[in-house]
């Protein structure tokens, strides 16, 4: 680690490490599947380890910067709000409906403005993710407490 590392870069690295540790601990609380395998725990653990690695890399490679660029701060805050709302929406309305709303909003935040592309994301993202995780990998989908589209279309 450089002794001249920028405090902001070190702070980001420490934050990533702490979030990674918290996510790792939380991931270990995810129950095993009906066969005793890690199942749904595997992907959050991978993300947790990635966060830890990114935090270490950020601290290790931190360099002084002339001035912080706050240009992307609104997008970062929008993504944070979207992620919190998305997690809440999944618990209330299930995975499919929540993803159908969150995917186009996330793409809009990242700069996609084409209405056709945003509409396609609202349909394709939930369908592709559902097929990948819940059908092909056999992960049990999070069901909504208030309403879940899987109850209507027939799914797990």
Shape annotation = globular
What's the number of domains?
Answer: 2
Give the helices and strands as they follow along the chain.
HHHHH
Low confidence ranges: none
- The first-to-last residue Cα distance is 49 Å
Radius of gyration: 19 Å
Structural class: mainly alpha
Global mean pLDDT: 81
Helix content: 55-70%
Tally of DSSP helical segments = 5
* Number of extended strands: 0
> How can the largest sheet be summarized?
none
Strand content: under 5%
Question: Main traits of this protein?
Answer:
67% helix; mainly alpha
General description of the model:
The chain has 156 residues and is mainly alpha-helical. It contains five helices and no strands. The longest helix is centred in the middle third of the chain and has 37 residues, at 73-109. It is globular.
Describe the secondary structure blueprint for this structure.
Blueprint: H1 7-27, H2 42-60, H3 73-109, H4 115-136, H5 149-153
Helix pairs in contact: 1-2, 3-4
What's this, in brief?
It contains five helices and no strands.
